[in-house]
Amino acid sequence: MRALALTAVAAASLLLAGCETTNMKMGSQEAKTVATGSAAGSTSANANSALERCASPLGTVSLVENQQAGWYTILRNEYKLPPTANLLRLLIQQSNCFVVVERSAAGMNAMNRERELMASGQMRGGSNFGGGQMVASDYALSPEIVFSNDNAGGIGGALGGLIGGGRGRAIAAIGGSMNTKEASALLTLVDNRSGVQVAASEGSASKTDFGAFGSIFGTGGAGGLGGYTNTAQGKVIAAAFTDAYNQMVIALRSYRAQTVQGQGLGGGGRLGVDGGVAPSQTYVPAEAPAPAAAPAKPAPKKKK
Predict the structure, then answer these.
(1) How far apart are CA 145 and CA 70, in angstroms?
(2) Alpha-carbon distances of 14 from 30, 81, 110, 222, rounded to whole Å
(3) Quick one: angle between helices 165-177 and 155-163, nearest 10?
(4) What is the rounded end-to-end Cα distance, in angstroms, of the chain?
(5) CA dist., res. 100 & res. 88, Å (int)
(6) Tens digits of per-residue pLDDT, 170-200?
(7) C-alpha closest to that of 242 among 30, 104, 53, 28
Protein backbone atom coordinates (compact mmCIF):
# COMPACT_ATOMS: atom_id res chain seq x y z
CA MET A 1 0.00 0.00 0.00
CA ARG A 2 2.77 2.40 0.93
CA ALA A 3 4.51 1.76 -2.38
CA LEU A 4 1.29 2.43 -4.27
CA ALA A 5 0.75 5.67 -2.35
CA LEU A 6 4.26 6.87 -3.13
CA THR A 7 3.76 6.01 -6.78
CA ALA A 8 0.51 7.99 -6.87
CA VAL A 9 2.17 11.00 -5.23
CA ALA A 10 5.03 10.88 -7.73
CA ALA A 11 2.60 10.66 -10.67
CA ALA A 12 0.59 13.59 -9.33
CA SER A 13 3.77 15.62 -8.92
CA LEU A 14 4.72 14.97 -12.52
CA LEU A 15 1.28 16.02 -13.73
CA LEU A 16 1.41 19.22 -11.69
CA ALA A 17 4.91 19.91 -12.96
CA GLY A 18 3.61 19.58 -16.50
CA CYS A 19 0.83 22.08 -15.81
CA GLU A 20 3.35 24.41 -14.20
CA THR A 21 5.56 24.52 -17.28
CA THR A 22 2.70 25.11 -19.72
CA ASN A 23 1.16 28.05 -17.83
CA MET A 24 2.66 31.47 -18.51
CA LYS A 25 4.06 33.16 -15.38
CA MET A 26 4.58 36.85 -16.02
CA GLY A 27 7.16 38.32 -13.63
CA SER A 28 8.50 34.87 -12.72
CA GLN A 29 11.31 35.07 -10.17
CA GLU A 30 13.04 32.09 -11.79
CA ALA A 31 13.41 34.02 -15.05
CA LYS A 32 14.91 37.18 -13.52
CA THR A 33 18.53 38.20 -13.20
CA VAL A 34 19.94 40.39 -10.42
CA ALA A 35 19.03 43.41 -12.61
CA THR A 36 15.30 43.64 -12.02
CA GLY A 37 12.54 46.23 -12.15
CA SER A 38 12.48 49.45 -14.12
CA ALA A 39 13.70 53.05 -14.17
CA ALA A 40 12.18 56.32 -15.34
CA GLY A 41 14.14 59.51 -14.86
CA SER A 42 15.48 59.59 -11.32
CA THR A 43 12.91 57.09 -10.04
CA SER A 44 13.04 53.31 -10.11
CA ALA A 45 10.63 50.49 -9.31
CA ASN A 46 11.34 46.97 -8.03
CA ALA A 47 15.10 47.49 -8.30
CA ASN A 48 17.52 45.09 -6.65
CA SER A 49 17.92 46.22 -3.04
CA ALA A 50 21.64 45.38 -3.24
CA LEU A 51 22.26 47.94 -6.02
CA GLU A 52 24.33 50.92 -4.88
CA ARG A 53 22.71 54.33 -5.43
CA CYS A 54 23.66 58.01 -5.59
CA ALA A 55 21.78 61.00 -4.18
CA SER A 56 22.23 62.87 -7.49
CA PRO A 57 23.87 62.15 -10.88
CA LEU A 58 27.62 62.69 -11.31
CA GLY A 59 27.26 63.55 -15.02
CA THR A 60 26.20 62.01 -18.31
CA VAL A 61 27.56 58.68 -19.55
CA SER A 62 27.51 56.66 -22.78
CA LEU A 63 28.14 52.91 -23.12
CA VAL A 64 31.06 51.81 -25.29
CA GLU A 65 31.35 48.10 -26.16
CA ASN A 66 34.29 46.66 -28.07
CA GLN A 67 32.30 44.39 -30.35
CA GLN A 68 35.48 43.08 -31.99
CA ALA A 69 36.87 41.68 -28.73
CA GLY A 70 37.05 37.94 -28.14
CA TRP A 71 34.80 38.06 -25.07
CA TYR A 72 32.06 39.81 -27.05
CA THR A 73 32.21 37.17 -29.79
CA ILE A 74 31.74 34.41 -27.18
CA LEU A 75 28.91 36.36 -25.53
CA ARG A 76 27.06 36.71 -28.82
CA ASN A 77 27.85 33.44 -30.62
CA GLU A 78 28.25 30.88 -27.83
CA TYR A 79 25.95 32.18 -25.08
CA LYS A 80 23.50 33.90 -27.49
CA LEU A 81 23.25 36.88 -25.14
CA PRO A 82 22.32 40.48 -26.06
CA PRO A 83 24.80 43.36 -25.68
CA THR A 84 25.91 44.05 -22.12
CA ALA A 85 24.97 47.71 -22.68
CA ASN A 86 21.29 46.74 -22.40
CA LEU A 87 21.90 45.43 -18.87
CA LEU A 88 24.14 48.31 -17.80
CA ARG A 89 21.68 50.96 -18.98
CA LEU A 90 19.11 49.66 -16.49
CA LEU A 91 21.60 49.43 -13.62
CA ILE A 92 22.98 52.93 -14.23
CA GLN A 93 19.60 54.66 -14.39
CA GLN A 94 18.27 52.79 -11.36
CA SER A 95 21.33 53.83 -9.37
CA ASN A 96 20.82 57.54 -10.26
CA CYS A 97 24.61 57.94 -10.44
CA PHE A 98 24.69 58.97 -14.12
CA VAL A 99 22.32 60.13 -16.83
CA VAL A 100 22.58 57.75 -19.81
CA VAL A 101 22.86 59.31 -23.28
CA GLU A 102 22.34 57.38 -26.52
CA ARG A 103 25.44 56.74 -28.61
CA SER A 104 24.81 53.29 -30.11
CA ALA A 105 24.79 52.93 -33.91
CA ALA A 106 21.10 52.02 -34.02
CA GLY A 107 20.11 54.84 -31.66
CA MET A 108 22.14 57.47 -33.51
CA ASN A 109 20.67 56.32 -36.83
CA ALA A 110 17.16 56.75 -35.42
CA MET A 111 17.90 60.27 -34.19
CA ASN A 112 19.55 61.27 -37.45
CA ARG A 113 16.56 59.92 -39.40
CA GLU A 114 14.22 62.28 -37.53
CA ARG A 115 16.47 65.22 -38.31
CA GLU A 116 16.59 64.25 -41.97
CA LEU A 117 12.79 64.11 -42.06
CA MET A 118 12.60 67.58 -40.57
CA ALA A 119 15.13 68.91 -43.09
CA SER A 120 13.03 67.44 -45.92
CA GLY A 121 10.03 69.48 -44.78
CA GLN A 122 7.82 66.43 -44.13
CA MET A 123 7.33 67.00 -40.40
CA ARG A 124 4.39 69.01 -39.08
CA GLY A 125 4.95 72.48 -37.73
CA GLY A 126 6.37 72.73 -34.23
CA SER A 127 8.42 69.51 -34.51
CA ASN A 128 11.64 71.04 -33.30
CA PHE A 129 14.61 68.85 -34.21
CA GLY A 130 16.92 71.76 -34.85
CA GLY A 131 20.55 71.96 -33.81
CA GLY A 132 21.94 72.56 -30.34
CA GLN A 133 19.72 70.12 -28.45
CA MET A 134 21.77 66.94 -28.03
CA VAL A 135 23.35 66.41 -24.60
CA ALA A 136 27.10 65.80 -24.42
CA SER A 137 28.47 62.59 -22.96
CA ASP A 138 30.74 63.50 -20.06
CA TYR A 139 31.98 59.95 -19.51
CA ALA A 140 32.26 56.65 -21.40
CA LEU A 141 31.70 53.35 -19.59
CA SER A 142 33.34 50.29 -21.17
CA PRO A 143 32.39 46.73 -20.09
CA GLU A 144 34.51 43.61 -20.51
CA ILE A 145 34.15 40.00 -19.43
CA VAL A 146 37.56 39.05 -18.08
CA PHE A 147 36.81 35.39 -17.34
CA SER A 148 33.81 33.15 -17.81
CA ASN A 149 33.76 29.47 -16.95
CA ASP A 150 30.71 27.44 -17.87
CA ASN A 151 31.84 24.38 -15.89
CA ALA A 152 34.10 24.91 -12.88
CA GLY A 153 32.95 21.74 -11.11
CA GLY A 154 34.51 18.29 -10.94
CA ILE A 155 35.40 18.20 -7.25
CA GLY A 156 32.89 15.45 -6.57
CA GLY A 157 34.65 13.04 -8.92
CA ALA A 158 38.00 13.70 -7.27
CA LEU A 159 36.58 13.09 -3.79
CA GLY A 160 34.90 9.92 -5.00
CA GLY A 161 38.20 8.56 -6.23
CA LEU A 162 39.86 9.27 -2.89
CA ILE A 163 37.10 7.64 -0.83
CA GLY A 164 36.50 4.63 -3.07
CA GLY A 165 33.85 1.96 -2.72
CA GLY A 166 30.10 2.47 -2.89
CA ARG A 167 30.21 5.81 -1.06
CA GLY A 168 32.91 7.03 -3.38
CA ARG A 169 30.84 6.15 -6.43
CA ALA A 170 27.83 8.00 -4.97
CA ILE A 171 29.91 11.12 -4.29
CA ALA A 172 31.40 10.92 -7.79
CA ALA A 173 27.88 10.72 -9.27
CA ILE A 174 26.81 13.80 -7.34
CA GLY A 175 29.97 15.69 -8.30
CA GLY A 176 29.57 14.79 -11.94
CA SER A 177 26.13 16.41 -11.99
CA MET A 178 27.33 19.62 -10.33
CA ASN A 179 28.14 22.44 -12.74
CA THR A 180 29.49 25.67 -11.25
CA LYS A 181 29.25 28.71 -13.50
CA GLU A 182 31.62 31.60 -12.81
CA ALA A 183 32.14 35.00 -14.38
CA SER A 184 34.35 38.01 -13.76
CA ALA A 185 33.61 41.41 -15.28
CA LEU A 186 35.55 44.66 -15.60
CA LEU A 187 34.22 48.22 -15.98
CA THR A 188 36.28 51.29 -16.89
CA LEU A 189 35.07 54.90 -16.78
CA VAL A 190 36.82 57.45 -19.01
CA ASP A 191 36.42 61.23 -19.07
CA ASN A 192 35.51 62.06 -22.69
CA ARG A 193 36.98 65.57 -22.65
CA SER A 194 40.45 64.73 -21.38
CA GLY A 195 40.65 61.01 -22.20
CA VAL A 196 41.64 60.30 -18.59
CA GLN A 197 40.44 57.09 -16.95
CA VAL A 198 38.72 58.17 -13.77
CA ALA A 199 37.58 54.80 -12.40
CA ALA A 200 37.90 51.05 -12.90
CA SER A 201 36.30 48.15 -11.06
CA GLU A 202 36.03 44.37 -11.09
CA GLY A 203 33.08 42.20 -10.18
CA SER A 204 32.51 38.47 -9.97
CA ALA A 205 29.74 35.96 -9.43
CA SER A 206 29.29 32.20 -9.32
CA LYS A 207 26.36 29.82 -9.24
CA THR A 208 26.17 26.05 -8.89
CA ASP A 209 23.82 24.16 -11.17
CA PHE A 210 23.13 20.83 -9.51
CA GLY A 211 21.88 19.28 -12.76
CA ALA A 212 20.88 15.64 -12.11
CA PHE A 213 21.63 15.96 -8.39
CA GLY A 214 17.92 15.90 -7.54
CA SER A 215 17.27 12.72 -9.48
CA ILE A 216 19.71 10.84 -7.28
CA PHE A 217 17.47 11.48 -4.27
CA GLY A 218 14.13 11.34 -6.07
CA THR A 219 11.60 13.96 -7.15
CA GLY A 220 11.27 15.42 -3.65
CA GLY A 221 14.94 16.42 -3.60
CA ALA A 222 14.70 17.99 -7.03
CA GLY A 223 11.73 20.13 -6.02
CA GLY A 224 13.61 21.50 -3.01
CA LEU A 225 16.47 22.83 -5.13
CA GLY A 226 14.26 25.48 -6.77
CA GLY A 227 16.19 28.09 -8.76
CA TYR A 228 19.54 26.31 -8.30
CA THR A 229 18.63 23.86 -11.09
CA ASN A 230 19.67 24.75 -14.69
CA THR A 231 20.93 28.25 -13.90
CA ALA A 232 21.84 30.13 -17.09
CA GLN A 233 25.35 31.48 -17.62
CA GLY A 234 23.79 34.80 -18.57
CA LYS A 235 22.46 35.29 -15.05
CA VAL A 236 25.96 34.82 -13.65
CA ILE A 237 27.40 37.37 -16.08
CA ALA A 238 24.65 39.84 -15.12
CA ALA A 239 25.50 39.36 -11.45
CA ALA A 240 29.21 39.91 -12.16
CA PHE A 241 28.51 43.24 -13.90
CA THR A 242 26.20 44.32 -11.08
CA ASP A 243 28.96 43.56 -8.58
CA ALA A 244 31.48 45.52 -10.68
CA TYR A 245 29.12 48.50 -10.95
CA ASN A 246 28.51 48.48 -7.20
CA GLN A 247 32.26 48.50 -6.56
CA MET A 248 32.68 51.47 -8.92
CA VAL A 249 29.90 53.50 -7.28
CA ILE A 250 31.41 52.92 -3.84
CA ALA A 251 34.77 54.25 -5.07
CA LEU A 252 33.21 57.23 -6.88
CA ARG A 253 31.43 58.41 -3.74
CA SER A 254 34.82 59.37 -2.29
CA TYR A 255 36.43 60.32 -5.64
CA ARG A 256 39.46 62.59 -5.66
CA ALA A 257 41.15 63.51 -8.94
CA GLN A 258 44.72 62.30 -9.50
CA THR A 259 47.23 65.12 -9.82
CA VAL A 260 50.81 65.27 -11.09
CA GLN A 261 52.60 67.77 -8.93
CA GLY A 262 54.67 70.37 -10.70
CA GLN A 263 53.36 70.25 -14.26
CA GLY A 264 49.88 68.73 -14.24
CA LEU A 265 48.55 65.97 -16.52
CA GLY A 266 50.27 65.46 -19.86
CA GLY A 267 53.15 67.82 -19.14
CA GLY A 268 55.87 65.20 -19.44
CA GLY A 269 55.50 63.31 -16.19
CA ARG A 270 57.81 63.12 -13.21
CA LEU A 271 59.76 60.05 -14.38
CA GLY A 272 62.30 61.92 -16.47
CA VAL A 273 65.01 60.17 -18.51
CA ASP A 274 68.58 61.19 -19.21
CA GLY A 275 68.72 63.55 -22.18
CA GLY A 276 64.96 63.94 -22.32
CA VAL A 277 63.25 67.23 -22.93
CA ALA A 278 62.41 69.02 -19.73
CA PRO A 279 58.74 68.58 -18.82
CA SER A 280 56.44 71.44 -19.59
CA GLN A 281 53.86 72.81 -17.23
CA THR A 282 50.34 72.25 -18.49
CA TYR A 283 48.56 73.47 -15.41
CA VAL A 284 49.24 76.50 -13.26
CA PRO A 285 47.23 76.58 -10.06
CA ALA A 286 45.41 79.85 -9.74
CA GLU A 287 46.83 81.96 -6.98
CA ALA A 288 44.42 83.09 -4.36
CA PRO A 289 43.70 86.81 -4.80
CA ALA A 290 45.21 89.07 -2.19
CA PRO A 291 42.66 90.32 0.30
CA ALA A 292 41.41 93.79 -0.58
CA ALA A 293 42.57 96.57 1.66
CA ALA A 294 39.92 97.81 4.03
CA PRO A 295 38.67 101.29 3.10
CA ALA A 296 40.06 104.07 5.24
CA LYS A 297 37.69 105.36 7.84
CA PRO A 298 36.85 109.06 7.52
CA ALA A 299 38.37 111.23 10.17
CA PRO A 300 35.93 112.23 12.89
CA LYS A 301 34.56 115.74 12.55
CA LYS A 302 35.77 118.27 15.08
CA LYS A 303 33.19 119.74 17.35
CA LYS A 304 32.71 123.47 17.04
Answers:
(1) 9
(2) 19, 31, 49, 12
(3) 180
(4) 129
(5) 10
(6) 444 444 445 678 889 999 999 999 999 999 9
(7) 53
